Amino acid sequence: MVLGTVALVLLVGVTAEAQLPKQGTYTGKLGWWAVGNVTEIGKNHIFWTGEFGAQFFNDAATGFMDGMSLRCPAVNDVVDGVSVSAHGYCVGTDKDGDKLVYVWQGEKFVGTFQFTGGTGKYTGIKGNN
Questions:
Q1: What is residue 18's predicted lDDT score, i.e. its pLDDT?
Q2: Distance (Å, rounded) from C-alpha 68 to C-alpha 92?
Q3: Nearest CA to 104 among 52, 57, 64?
Q4: What is the DSSP string of the chain?
Q5: Which of 22, 33, 111, 113 has its CA 20 to 30 A from that of 73?
């Protein structure tokens, strides 16, 4: 009888943990790197194509995207050392193997991104950030 109770508690715990709130806010830290190719377009004008990689840590040390690894193919137009236009996509994989996809855009290292889909707990996700 004790074994049955423990199994039920563990099953309920996993199910509850796998669900995400339908809306909310989050903050965190992102460590990232980039690799790519630079093409000189003209004087003081370069065009970068490549990929960013990152690891995201939610400030709550749990919850949305915590521990997620990101792979982000991207492009960046740089004039006089300033990013004037950048955009790309990111595919994130969390600790459970679920995937989150978003598209992003920005300039001068400020931008926005929109969630476009995912798998597992991120299935059907939509929203702006």
A1: 55
A2: 6
A3: 52
A4: -HHHHHHHHHHHHHHHHH---SS----EEEEEEEEEEEEEEETTEEEEEEEEEEEEEETTSSSTTTTEEEEEEEEEEEETTEEEEEEEEEEEE-TTS-EEEEEEEEETTEEEEEEEEESGGGTT--EE-
A5: 22
CA neighbor of 117 nearest in space, from 92, 82, 81:
92
Q: How many CA atoms lie within 13 A of 1 on its CB side?
A: 0
Domain boundaries, the chain: 27-128
Q: Residues 118, 99: contact at Cβ < 8 Å?
A: yes
Which pLDDT tens digit goes with each residue over 52-67?
Answer: 999 999 999 988 899 9
Average pLDDT, stretch 99-112? 88
- The number of residues in the chain equals 129
* Rounded Cα distance, 57 and 115, in Å: 18
CA 36-39-43 angle, 5° bins: 135
- pLDDT class of 12 with cuts at 50, 70, 90: very low
